[in-house]
Design goal:
The chain has about 300 residues and is α/β, with parallel strands linked by helices. The chain is built from nine helices and twelve strands. Helix content is about 30%, strand content about 30%. It starts with a strand and ends with a helix. About 40% of the residues are buried. The structure holds guanosine-5'-triphosphate. The site of guanosine-5'-triphosphate has 22 residues, from helix 1, strand 9 and strand 10.
Length: about 300
C-alpha cells in the first residue's frame, strides 16, 4: 500500500495571521514541506512572501479554492507529490474560503493524501472590533481540529476569555491556543485530524460579499503621504496588503481592520491589493490618492 502524504489545512478569516503562522512553521519544522496557496486578490502577495523561504510551492490563482478551483487543487496536489515528494503538505486558503467542501474533497477524492488536520487562525482583535461571526467564519471554526486565537497582544485578557467561550460554542472539541504572531510549538498542529468527521458533501453556494482590486506602480512613494493614506482608508476596506517602495527601501505592507504595519522586504516594485465589501465604490478615489503619494 502506498503511504498517503499528510495534508494540513490552514484556514481563518482575512488577515487573521495565516501567512504569519506559515512563516513560523517553515522556520521551525525540519521536514520537507510543500505549500499550496490560494489567494483572493489577482496579485499573489502571500506567495511572494513565502517564496523567499526556499520551499516548494504551488499557487492556485485568484478565486476561492473552496469551490471554483477544486479541480485545480486536486491537480496541484498530485503534481507536487510527483515532483517534490514532500513529507507534509500545508494548504493556506483565502480568508474567504469555507473549508468544508475542501475537507470533503481531500478525504474522498484525493487518494494520495490524508487530512492531517484543519488549523483555524482567529484574529482576536478583529473579533473585538467586529464581534459578529458570519457564516464563513462559523464554517471555518466548525471545521477546526485546532484553533489559534491569534493577536492576543492586541486584546485585554478579560476579552480573550469571552472570545474563547464564543468559539467554543461553535466547536466544542478543538483546543484553543492563545498565540502572538502564530508562535506555537508546531507539533501541536500536526497529526490532529478528528477520527470522526461528517462525510456529507456540503451544499455549497458560496457568494463572497467581498471584492478586490489591485494597484501596481514603478514609482517611489512618499512615506508620510502613504501613512496618512493608510490611516484614513474607508472602513469598508477590511484588508489591504502588498509591497510599497519608499525612498530608503521597499516594505511589505499589511492592513487589517484599520491597523497596519510595514516590514522591510526584498521586492522589485510596488503592488497592492485592496479587499473589502463594495470596494469598487472606493477604487477610483483610492487610486487617485495613491497617485498623489508618488514622488
Ligand atoms: N499585533 C499582531 N499582529 C499580528 C499577529 N499575527 C499576525 N499579525 C499581523 O497581521 C497582519 C496579517 O497577517 P497575515 O499573516 O498576513 O494574515 P493572513 O491571515 O495570512 O491574511 P490573508 O491571507 O490576507 O487572509 C500582518 O500585519 C501581521 O504582521 C499578532 O499576533 N499580533
Amino acid at each position: 500500500m502506498t503511504t498517503r502524504t499528510p495534508l494540513t489545512l490552514i484556514t481563518g478569516p482575512l488577515g487573521s495571521g495565516k501567512t504569519t503562522l506559515l512563516r513560523h512553521i517553515l522556520a521551525t519544522v525540519s521536514q520537507k514541506i510543500a505549500i499550496l496557496m490560494n489567494e483572493f486578490g489577482e496579485i499573489a502577495i502571500d506567495a511572494k512572501v513565502i517564496q523567499g523561504q526556499n520551499v516548494s510551492m504551488a499557487d492556485l490563482g485568484g478565486g476561492c479554492v473552496c469551490c471554483s478551483l477544486l479541480g485545480e487543487f486536486e491537480a496541484a496536489v498530485n503534481e507536487i507529490i510527483e515532483t517534490v515528494n514532500p513529507d507534509l503538505i500545508v494548504v493556506e486558503t483565502t480568508g474567504l474560503a469555507e473549508p468544508d467542501a475542501l475537507v470533503f474533497d481531500i478525504q474522498e477524492s484525493i487518494p494520495v493524501v490524508r487530512l492531517d488536520g484543519v488549523v483555524t487562525v482567529i484574529d482576536a482583535d478583529g473579533l473585538v472590533q467586529y464581534p459578529q461571526i458570519g457564516h464563513t467564519g462559523r464554517i471555518q471554526i466548525e471545521a477546526a481540529d485546532a484553533i489559534l486565537l491569534n493577536k492576543v497582544d492586541l486584546v485585554a485578557e478579560s476579552e480573550l476569555e469571552a472570545i474563547a467561550a464564543k468559539l467554543h460554542r461553535f466547536n466544542e472539541t478543538a483546543p484553543i491556543f492563545h498565540t502572538q504572531r502564530g508562535q506555537i510549538d508546531p507539533a501541536l498542529l500536526f497529526g490532529i485530524a478528528k477520527a470522526e468527521r461528517s462525510l456529507q458533501p456540503p451544499h455549497h453556494i458560496h457568494q463572497p460579499e467581498f471584492d478586490s482590486f489591485s494597484y501596481t506602480s514603478p514609482a517611489t512613494f512618499d512615506r508620510a503621504c502613504f501613512e496618512e493614506f493608510a490611516g484614513s482608508l474607508a472602513p469598508s476596506i477590511y484588508r489591504a496588503k502588498g509591497f510599497v517602495r519608499f525612498v530608503d527601501d521597499i516594505y511589505l505592507f499589511n492592513f487589517v481592520a484599520g491597523r497596519w504595519d510595514f516590514e522591510p522586504f526584498e521586492q522589485a516594485t510596488t503592488e497592492l491589493v485592496f479587499i473589502g465589501k463594495q470596494v469598487n465604490e472606493h477604487q477610483a478615489e483610492i487610486l487617485q490618492r495613491l497617485k498623489l503619494c508618488e514622488h
